[in-house]
Amino acid sequence: MKSRNLFMGILVLFTGVVALLSSLGVIEFHWSILWKLWPMFLIIAGIALLPLNDYVKGAILVAALGIGCLLYQAENRHYQGNAVSRFFHRHFAQWDWDDDDVQGDEATDNDTYNASNDFQYDQHFAEPFRDVERASMDIEFGAGDLTLAAPCAELAKVDINSNFVQYSFRSEGGDDEASFHLTGKGTTQHLHKKKGNTNDIALALCAHPVWDFSLDMGAASAKLDFTPYQVSEIEINGGACNLDLKLGDSGIDTEVEISTGASDIDIQVPAGMDCEVRIESAITGKDFKGFEKVERGLWRTPGFGQGSHRITIQIECAVSDISIEQY
Q1: What gap in Å lies between CA 188 and CA 111, rounded to an integer?
Q2: pTM of the predicted model, to two decimals?
Q3: Is the pLDDT of residue 81 over 90?
Q4: Closest residue by Cα to residue 299 from 318, 317, 326
Q5: pLDDT top residue among 17 and 1
Q6: Which of 25, 138, 153, 318 is most open to solvent, judged by the fewest CB atoms within 10 Å of its CB?
Q7: CB neighbours of residue 301 within 10 Å
């Protein structure tokens, strides 16, 4: 039996049993506590790399999962609040969450607004067009959905619909270049009151400049179609995310760096264009259509090196499913 199959089987079986027992109400399971135990992913990755018999590694993995259960139980004794609010409060503290309690007449206007049933942030940002050669976009957001839309007439345009995050948009640069930063500030109060939480971002860029794109996200989904754009660098850091990335033949070299935890990654690249993929991963499902394996962790398109420009993809992940295909 292959080590990868044994590991994936044990992990899927363990996760399925926990999810089933939680769904049936047999156990009370809080996913936010699991996020606090994220170093367990590193331990599992280390076990996978040990030069031992597959069955011995399987036994060690079972023991590690048992220890993880004990640690979870110890943390669960001190658990307060629902899983969603705890997750956002602990893992996105850099957003400066407004968590002040509303107490009678002492409540501020901001507290009253946050507690309102009509709490909603509909925001729209736009940077007027100017003729720059290079531009960069830096986005930080936790959970939700991000979509890169078709090019716009402005230099950059952002439309946001959220009921727990308020964003700020900042631009810098001179005559020949521009940089944009989108960051969020949220409130956990509304998360306690709403079952459904919305945080949707629609982004559109000008097609003229050469873009550098940086994205930091948590448990989120991103659908990024870069085919209409000239993009030089793409850097994506995520937790448990769903990433759908489509790259085009813009006539320049494109470098992509992706670092995630447990994620689902789908990438499309143009057929006939040089493409190289390097992966460092512990436990990963791989489906690379139209690629040839050169060595461990390295794949290339047939005839690589003959084109005038190329796409280079570097992926570092823990437990993920990666699909790359040509279109």
Answers
A1: 11
A2: 0.66
A3: no
A4: 326
A5: 17
A6: 25
A7: 24
